[in-house]
Design brief:
Layout: H1 9-61, E1 67-68, E2 75-79, E3 85-89, E4 113-119, E5 128-137, E6 142-150, H2 157-198, H3 216-265, H4 271-300, E7 308-311, H5 312-322, E8 329-334, E9 339-342, H6 344-361, E10 365-373, E11 391-398, H7 419-424, H8 432-442, E12 446-450, E13 457-463
Parallel strand pairs: 1-3, 8-10
Antiparallel strand pairs: 2-3, 2-6, 4-5, 5-6, 7-9, 10-11, 11-13, 12-13
Length: 470
């Protein structure tokens, strides 16, 4: 059994609007019927009151006959002070007084007339009548004039039929109009849904149609297209990543296969030692690629890191002291007390990747600097709210050949290695700088390549810890 929410929006809106229109129309019809009944009652009351006044005037003039002539108001009576009917119209002939609305004659401050709706009176029958009772005074005498006419029905049958037909017509018109309007409004939604159903992995460039009107559906279509654009970018990045990973993994595997085949075909069994050493070196590179791929997978998953207070100078000192000896001279220019909030292990990996990159490209010297800049403008991040507390700056410089300005952004892409880099270190993974920039961005910082007199100059900027400014 279908629940109410399982029906379409078009049907639900039409039903809601139809019920609302029916209730409001019915309420208006009831009020209108009540108004017409009140007007009819007032009109009949005036006619009955007029007939009583005419008979009273004739009584005062002494021109009353036993048989009263009547028109629309057929129920007429005249009674003396003793309550005896002395004159009556034909329908009321031989009947007693139709009612007693007024107090007995002579009652002080008594009203001269009275009006009421009487139902079930013996003299008038069982139907409801509008009765007017009027007292007339003469010389030593008093008379009571009675006048009555049938009360209008609560609702006239013709009027009731007209009101019911009007309520049904209004309800039907509102329901149809609402369903049509909602249907036309939801037509772009159907087009968007149909287009989304047609978009597949093999054709991710398609976009949903955007309605021309600036309404909520227009903004929805724009948001859907923006989402599709991001999904397409993520899919392309995933394809490129898989392609690059397969390309870089295929090289070590091919090299190992060739070494094994050469060793199997060689007659000299002492070649096994050389082959083993070659395979170990290749396996080291393969292990490094796999390790970098795992780090990238964790970073892509947006796994939040720790938020420790890290002293950059202490971090640099600890990492350099733990490094294997290098043929390059490493200079340190470290300002103490430069504190940032971040994951110490990730920041250490970022630093290691920058130093390893500098070690591969430097001719003889590597310089590592740690400094701080108070305020946004000095930190080079004007208008960026992330650096409102100040900027911590870590620079890694080498005296190598440097990186051309037009290639500075591409070196941060995954598996991208410049020709000079491949010549110096064919065993690199091409992922170190990509990992470093991703760690910087996840730490609310930036990593870029700045101009330098000689060699490459990598500049990491991180927000200072809030209490570090003082």
């Amino acid at each position: 059994m279908r629940t109410w929410k399982q029906y379409s929006v078009r049907t639900r809106c039409a039903v809601y609007s139809g019920l609302t229109a029916a209730l409001l129309s019915a309420l208006f019809a009831v009020l209108l019927a009540g108004l017409f009944h009140r007007l009819d009652t007032a009109q009949v009351t005036d006619v009955v009151d007029g007939a009583a006044s005419r008979i009273a005037l004739n009584v005062q003039r002494g021109r009353v006959h036993a048989r009263l002539a009547h028109g629309y108001v057929a129920n007429l009576q005249v009674a003396d002070s003793q309550g005896r009917v002395v004159a009556a119209s034909a329908p009321m002939s031989g009947k007693g007084p139709m009612t007693s609305l007024l107090p007995p004659a002579g009652t002080p401050h008594a009203a001269p007339n009275a009006r009421a709706v009487i139902c079930g009176s013996t003299a008038l029958g069982h139907n409801c009548h509008i009765v007017v009772e009027q007292r007339v005074y003469g010389v030593g005498h008093s008379w009571t004039v009675y006048s009555a006419a049938p009360a209008p029905p609560l609702v006239d049958p013709g009027l009731a039929a007209l009101l019911i037909a009007s309520v049904l017509a209004i309800t039907g018109a509102v329901t149809y109009t609402c369903r049509r309007i909602v249907g036309e409004s939801l037509t772009p939604v159907d087009a968007i849904r149909s287009e989304l159903d047609e978009i597949t992995v093999t054709d991710p460039a398609r976009r949903v149609p955007i309605p021309p009107h600036e309404d909520e559906i227009h903004h929805l279509a724009e948001s859907v297209n923006h989402t599709l654009t991001r999904l397409q970018g993520a899919m392309e990045q995933q394809r490129q990543f898989a392609s690059d990973a397969c390309h870089d993994l295929r090289g070590p595997v091919t090299a190992m296969r060739a070494e094994v085949e050469d060793a199997m075909m060689a007659e000299d069994h002492t070649l096994a030692t050389t082959t083993g050493e070659t395979l170990l070196a290749t396996l080291d590179r393969l292990q490094a690629i796999i390790g970098d791929l795992l780090i990238i997978a964790r970073l892509d998953a947006k796994t939040p890191g720790a938020r420790d207070r890290v002293d950059l100078a202490e971090l640099v000192t600890a990492e350099l002291d733990a490094r294997h000896p290098s043929t390059k001279h490493i200079e340190r220019e470290l300002s103490p007390g430069v504190l940032v909030l971040g994951d110490r292990l990730r920041l250490a990996r970022l630093l290691a990747n920058l130093v390893n990159n500098a070690d591969r490209h430097a001719d003889s010297r590597i310089t590592i600097k740690v400094s701080r800049a108070e305020g946004e403008a000095e930190g080079g991040q004007d208008g960026d709210p992330r650096f409102a507390t100040g900027t911590a700056i870590l620079e890694v410089l080498d005296d190598g050949a440097g990186i051309p300005p037009d290639q500075r952004d591409s070196v941060f892409q995954r598996f991208v290695r410049l020709g000079e880099s491949r010549a110096r270190d064919p065993g690199g993974t091409g992922l170190g700088l990509a990992i470093a920039r991703q760690i910087a961005e996840m730490s609310d910082g930036t990593l870029c390549i700045a101009d330098s007199v000689r060699g490459a100059r990598f500049v990491l900027r991180l927000p200072l810890a809030p209490k570090a400014r003082s």
